[in-house]
C-alpha cells in the first residue's frame, strides 16, 4: 500500500509541469476576461527540487528498511551462532570435567601403585629373612636327626640345637609380624581410598600407619618425620585424610629437598573449636614467593622433568574443600621452610 502511495505521488509530481503548461502559467488564465488578480508564475525549478527531495526521501526510506532488515538477519545469525557456541562450550566443559576426573583417578591410582611397589619391596625384606631363618632351622634339625639316627645325640648338641632353633624362630616371628603389619596398613589405606563413607578415626594411629606405609619412600632419603599427635578421635572421611597427608609428604620428598639432603618434616594435630587443624611443615628449600599462589593450580609443577604431573596439591585442595569442607593456607620462606595450615570440620572429636 505504501509503495503504491509513493508511486502515485511520484507521477503527480512529474505531471505538474504538464498541468501548468506555458499558456496557463502566465499571470492571466487563457480565455478569461475581466479584472481578475494576476497569478504569479510557479517556478519550474521548485517542482524539480521537490521531485529530487521526494526521490531522496524514497531512497532513504528504502535504505533504512533494507539496513534494518539486514540488521535483523545479522542479529538472528548472531543468536544462532551464540547458541552453537554455548552448546560447544557445554560439550567442551563436560569433556574437560570428564578428563579432569580421569586425571584425578589416574593420579590416585598412581599413588596407590607407588605404595604397592614400596610395600611389596618392603615386605620382601622380612620375608627373605624368614626364609633364611627357616632354611637355617631346617639344617639344624637335619643335623640333629642324623645324630639321633646313629645314637650319637648328646646333651650338649641338643642344648645347642634348642638355643639356635629358638633364636632362629624368634627372628622368623619378628619378621612375620613386621610383614603382617605392613600388609595390614596398606590394606587399610587401599580400602579407605575406595570407601567413601564417614567413620571414626584415631588421628594418632591413622597418621602413624600412613607414615609406616610410606616408609619405603622415606628410607630412600635422609628425611625424618616428626609427629605431635595426641589420641584424638574424630568422625571424618579417612580416604580424604589419606590423600592430604600422603600428598603432603610426597610433595616434600619430591620438591622440598635435593637428593641426599638431610631434612625434617613436622606434623601436628590441634583442636580448634569444632574443627580439626593440621599443621604440616618441612625445613626444605621452600617456594618462591611469586609461585606460592600457583601451587594449588592443576598441572603446575617445578619437577615435570622428573615425571611429576602437577596434580598432587590440586587434588589435595579439591579433596579438602569438596569432601571435608575445609580450607588450606600455604606459607613459605625460600631456603628455610614451607608450611601448610589445614582446617576442616569434624562431627565428633575427643
Description:
By secondary structure, the chain is α+β, with helices and mostly antiparallel strands. Helix content is 60%, strand content 14%. It has seven helices and seven strands; from the N terminus they run αααβααββαββαββ. The protein has helices spanning 2-19, 44-149, 155-194, 203-213, 215-218, 238-256, 312-323, and strands at residues 199-202, 222-228, 233-236, 262-272, 275-282, 327-333, 337-345. Helix 1 runs antiparallel to helix 2 and helix 3 crosses helix 4 (203-213). The chain starts with a helix and ends in a 5-residue tail after the last strand.
Task: Give a concise summary.
By secondary structure, the protein is α+β, with helices and mostly antiparallel strands.
Main features:
single chain; 350 residues; alpha+beta; five-stranded mixed beta sheet; two-stranded antiparallel ribbon; 7 helices; elongated
Task: Indicate the percent of residues in helices.
Answer: 55-70%
Rg is 46 Å
Quickly count the helices: 7
Which residues form runs of ≥5 with pLDDT under 50?
A: 18-33
Amino- and carboxy-terminal Cα gap: 89 Å
Order of adjacent strands in the largest pleated sheet: 2-4-5-7-6
Number of strands: 7
The major pleated sheet works out as: 5 strands, mixed
Q: Shape, please?
A: elongated
SS strand fraction: 5-15%
Written as H for each helix and E for each strand, in order along the chain, the element string is: HHHEHHEEHEEHEE
- Class by SSE composition: alpha+beta
The average pLDDT is 77
